[in-house]
Amino acid sequence: MGLLMLEHLLPPLNDHNLPWMDTIHPIVVHFVIAMALISVLFDFIGVVTGRRALFEVSWWNLLFATSAIFVAIMFGQVEAGLANPYGDARNILNIHSTIGWSLAGVLSVLTGWRYVLRAKDPLSLPLAFLGADSLLAALVVVQVFLGDKLIWIYGLHTVKVVEAMRAGLV
Amino acid sequence: MQFFNVVLPSESPLNQIAAGLGPNDLPYSLPIHPNLVHLTIGLFVIAIAFDFAGAFYPLEKRIFRFLALPVTRPGLHDVGWYNLLACAVISFFTVTAGFYEMLTAVPLAGVKSTFGLESFVTMTWHGVGGVLILLVIVLMTIWRGYQRFVWRKDMGRQVQWPYLFAGVVMMGVLGLHGTLGAQLAAEFGVHITADQLLAAGADLKEALP
């Protein structure tokens, strides 16, 4: 009975092998990638040029990236579960998932740290935070690179690949 | 009454550079445009969202206090301004990369999108629409700058209501526009190695181990 309900939890799968029109994960990650990277960029510009108002802009972007990544992971997990990865895409998807969850941790810790720093003095930023910023930016870039491979090389959830998969060709 | 039919040469200009292209019809393995799109859309949407937060600040004050989250109204509007400024700068590169990658696009034959459109019409809307969206983003950035530095310099609410309305309309346009772009990839297989290999009759088990 419980299984029956689970079966009807999501609409039937379409030609993208998805219960919805198109992949949602790549849309939600706009708000993780853009907000995390711009937060790092504004921190560096703020330190280099002395425009300390930018630290506030960085903070809000960081907070938003952290909120968004959990939504991104939720859709990412559902869509990864329906992706039927093949060949090396299986490894890439595993690493992408691991880094994704790690990024949620890294972003949360950075946001907590930043909350404290901002509460103490919103107009200063210790050099150590720029170091953490660099790590964050590097992780995001690697994560985007891996996600890119899943769609642009392996075509997961594209109509053509799903068609081939259903025909047993991959 | 038809006098002339269009005469198309059999050779596509893409053949001139075919030797330098990979199976994804690009000289590199991953397209650049879709990555820059993350920045354009993310920055635009969050810029507008934070200007909304700044505009409705008197209503939210108590919520922020309840959360013990220190917040200033100019700080919220700063996000609205700087994110949009960054969006305007980056979007020139988004459109440039998009243009190049559209020129080398080879959509799968015989496909109709979920919208019922063929590849040429989809690419036309996405290409021409993209340039127009860039124009609107630049105009809105100038508009936003005038509000911030001239017209509403000394006011708590830094943005006019029509600006926020324009922002919401643009979010809808971006959503539709992005869907066309997503269809070019996921349905027409543009610049997707696996799709192009399958269309060429390759066996993915060997071609993409």
From TrEMBL, chain B:
<dbReference type="Pfam" id="PF09990">
    <property type="entry name" value="DUF2231"/>
</dbReference>
<feature type="transmembrane region" description="Helical">
    <location>
        <begin position="80"/>
        <end position="100"/>
    </location>
</feature>
<dbReference type="InterPro" id="IPR019251">
    <property type="entry name" value="DUF2231_TM"/>
</dbReference>
<feature type="domain" description="DUF2231">
    <location>
        <begin position="30"/>
        <end position="193"/>
    </location>
</feature>
<feature type="transmembrane region" description="Helical">
    <location>
        <begin position="163"/>
        <end position="186"/>
    </location>
</feature>
<keyword id="KW-0472">Membrane</keyword>
<feature type="transmembrane region" description="Helical">
    <location>
        <begin position="36"/>
        <end position="59"/>
    </location>
</feature>
<keyword id="KW-0812">Transmembrane</keyword>
<keyword id="KW-1133">Transmembrane helix</keyword>
<protein>
    <recommendedName>
        <fullName>DUF2231 domain-containing protein</fullName>
    </recommendedName>
</protein>
<feature type="transmembrane region" description="Helical">
    <location>
        <begin position="120"/>
        <end position="143"/>
    </location>
</feature>
